[in-house]
Amino acid sequence: MSTSVWLALFLLGCYHGINPGMGWLFAVALGFQDRKTSAVLLAILPLALGHLVSVALIVLIAVMAVAAFAHAIVHDIAAAILLLFGTYRLIRARHPRWVGMRVGFWGLAFWGFLMSTAHGVGLMLLPFITASHAAMAGAMTMSHVPASDSYASGWLMVAVHTFGYLVAMTAVALFVYAKLGVAFLRLAWLNVDLFWALALIVTGIVALLT
């Protein structure tokens, strides 16, 4: 795939990372509770792990699908899923509620997994998966791409996307904690969910038309 595709995957991860609902707001709040920068960083790691697992599961299913079915069928289904889920997110943009702030490593990882799944983060990678499979099939002049190649490409996409998410979330969390202070938490819930829902819908429409 071209450099622009990998850059798009990285920037998509960055977009998720700047969303307060995807974890950094949680990490900052824990940092203020403990009054330690290290608490912010320690919270980010399990949140990123949960994000990684959520995205990886979706990509795994997508890779299995493109290996078993015709590219056109998987492509259209992926586009329809994006469109439907984006519409759902637009109508019912609710976030899971946590019972308290004192949670351990696995509790934070579960939160990261839950939020990434609820936002349909992995779904946005579906067009990349189908496009990558089609490109490899065309390069090999064959309809069947070896499973190992599809999995390797899929896992690399997950890694690049998650790296972007981790970089952006860490940068935002540390900046808010060190520069803006606790008063910012009253204003921090930026409405990026609306843009995310619209992005899912637009991507689904574009995928259906291409």
Please provide a brief summary of the model:
This protein is mostly helical and 210 residues long.
Provide structural commentary:
With 210 residues, the chain is an all-alpha fold. Helix content is 77%, strand content 0%. It has helices spanning 3-18, 24-34, 37-68, 71-91, 105-118, 126-140, 147-180, 192-209. Helix 3 (37-68) crosses helix 6. It is elongated. The model has no long low-confidence stretch (mean pLDDT 77).
Could you name the key traits of this structure?
mainly alpha, 210 residues, 77% helix, 8 helices
The average pLDDT value, as a whole number, equals 77
Radius of gyration: 18 Å
Instruction: Write down the overall geometry.
Output: elongated
State the low-pLDDT regions, or none. none
Share of β-strand residues:
under 5%
Q: What is the tally of helical segments?
A: 8
DSSP E strands, number: 0
The main pleated sheet reads as: none
Helical content band: over 70%
- The rounded distance between the terminal residues' Cα atoms is 18 Å
**Class from helix and strand fractions:** mainly alpha
Q: SSE order in H/E notation?
A: HHHHHHHH
